[in-house]
Amino acid sequence: MSETINTVELGEKIVRVLKTVYDPEIPVDIYELGLIYDVFVNDHYEVKILMTLTTPNCPVAETLPVEVEEKVKTIEEVKDAEVEITFDPPWSQELMSEEAKLELGLL
């Protein structure tokens, strides 16, 4: 008998971890910045994260996705994690949460 994945609980854990990753140039975590477009979890507890960067030539383009992967892999249930970068749609301030906009003085 196979275990069923509690996707809600695992999703909450993933979000908590994502909120510990910060864009080094903006004092807001990548989740609240709207850089995370989607998170997928399959039956084997493998996670795929679709995310973007604030700009295509972002100075942390090489290191930020690796940091995200490594931190998500620290979650006990997660067997593997992969980050895919996309620029479609391009990131804009409209993707930021109200909390992030408030933090940055945009509200």
Task: Please describe what this structure looks like.
There is one protein chain. By secondary structure, the protein is of the alpha+beta class. It has a single domain, classed as GMP Synthetase, Chain A, domain 3. The chain is built from three helices and three strands; from the N terminus they run αββαβα. The protein has a three-stranded mixed β-sheet, covered by helices on one side. The mean pLDDT is 91.
Give me a quick take on this structure.
This protein has 107 residues and is of the alpha+beta class.
List the helices and strands and how they pair.
Blueprint: H1 7-18, E1 36-41, E2 46-51, H2 64-73, E3 80-85, H3 98-103
Parallel strand pairs: 2-3
Antiparallel strand pairs: 1-2
| Gross CATH architecture | 2-Layer Sandwich
Please give the radius of gyration in angstroms: 14 Å
What is the CATH superfamily classification? Fe-S cluster assembly (FSCA)
Coarse shape = globular
Total strands: the figure is: 3
Strand portion, in percent?
15-25%
| Count of DSSP-assigned helices | 3
Overall helicity = 25-40%
Mean pLDDT, as a whole number? 91
Name the strands of the widest sheet in spatial order: 1-2-3
Please name the CATH topology. Answer: GMP Synthetase, Chain A, domain 3
Sketch the major β-sheet: 3 strands, mixed
Topology as H/E string? HEEHEH
Provide the low-confidence segments as ranges: none
Tell me the number of structural domains: 1
Q: Alpha-carbon distance between the termini? A: 51 Å
